[in-house]
Amino acid sequence: xxxxxxxxxxxxxxxxxxxxxxxxxxxxxxxxxxxxxxxxxxxxxxxxxxxxxxxxxxxxxxxxxxxxxxxxxxxxxxxxxxxxxxxxxxxxxxxxxxxxxxxxxxxxxxxxxxxxxxxxxxxxxxxxxxxxxxxxxxxxxxxxxxxxxxxxxxxxxxxxxxxxxxxxxxxxxxxxxxxxxxxxxxxxxxxxxxxxxxxxxxxxxxxxxxxxxxxxxxxxxxxxxxxxxxxxxxxxxxxxxxxxxxxxxxxxxxxxxxxxxxxxxxxxxxxxxxxxxxxxxxxxxxxxxxxxxxxxxxxxxxxxxxxxxxxxxxxxxxxxxxxxxxxxxxxxxxxxxxxxxxxxxxxxxxxxxxxxxxxxxxxxxxxxxxxxxxxxxxxxxxxxxxxxxxxxxxxxxxxxxxxxx
Length: 405
Ligand code: KG4
Ligand code: ZN
Description:
With about 400 residues, this protein is of the alpha/beta class. It has two domains: about 1-80 and about 100-155 and about 365-395, ATPase, nucleotide binding domain (Nucleotidyltransferase, domain 5, 2-Layer Sandwich), CATH 3.30.420; about 190-240 and about 265-360, ATPase, nucleotide binding domain (Nucleotidyltransferase, domain 5, 2-Layer Sandwich), CATH 3.30.420.40. It has twelve helices and eleven strands. The strands form two sheets. The protein has a six-stranded mixed β-sheet, with helices on both faces. A hairpin with a 6-residue loop joins β2 (about 10-20) and β3. α6 (about 200-210) packs antiparallel against α10. The protein is globular. Residues about 75-100 and about 245-265 have low confidence and may be disordered. It binds 5'-O-[(R)-(carboxyoxy)(hydroxy)phosphoryl]adenosine (KG4) and zinc ion (ZN). The site of zinc ion has 6 residues, from α5. Its cofactor is Fe(2+). Belongs to the KAE1 / TsaD family.
């Protein structure tokens, strides 16, 4: 099957065309063309995504991206004129009897969760195409997409591999922070989530307080990494001076010293760390940074890096601690970490420790941590197969900002 997938839930407009075959536990995919247009530059002055602007940009980008993607995918060596009433027109403008319906078999589009004005642009566009080309249209859940992004690749072929169940997915993005339990394949139970801000949102807001650009995750992570390495180096010198063993093989008493040396003088709270459930809270952590900055007054680069490190440590501690608790309680065999914040190196390293040697740990490749249409296509195809090729009436497909898994 050839699938065209569209993603417009936030500030990335993305279109993919790929081939897919196989069942829901052994599907094989081949990417033909994969394109996206980030709107980050446009939203920078607002310090976050401005929905009306996102909608306008998606409307502008979609036809251009579709044309580019169709061209790159070389479907039937022909260039399809998207909104003409003819079936298809080739590069030289000659009419060919190449029905797009024969070139694309299924369209998948994100229906939620996300910003509703942004989601609608993708849905309306997909509906128009599906009608013109007489192709079935399937809605896809953005969060399910993030889970399945771990199987994807930036280009070429890839497979959905059989995972040992139960699996646990830590989904961390600008809009969500969830722990999702999968006891059966493609059946989800949200066992924990944020009660206020998403972790990515906290990264973005703290970054803004530190004068770093939107989106804030990469900037904070870079500063934190600098500070962490600097402190580690200092600890190494300390250890070399005081012990004959190398830092890696340092005795427990020294290990304790390493972690306290890494956490600098600034201390931030780890909200809900010891709550009896699997929920998170990041609003208090963000406010703690705000008060800290207010109390310090003028920030210099050194203090900024210290705050970045302690904030990243605090946020990651909360994510990792609750994930570890859930791994233990549900006897998890596969651990998935996905969504924009899954690009964070410190989070990746700490989750490696949670997984150890016995639990299979999966992250998306770095190019698929952020929003993309490939993940939408994967779950569109899998659900199409799972539902025995039944799709909802196009009229019933709606944008649902808070769509749940
Ligand atoms: O999944 P995503 O691309 O979009 C949403 O669905 O929200 O996630 C975007 C979020 C932003 O908040 C961004 O700051 C965060 O992911 N992010 C990071 C990193 N890279 C992106 N957070 C922490 N560390 C990173 N390296
Ligand atoms: Zn996302």
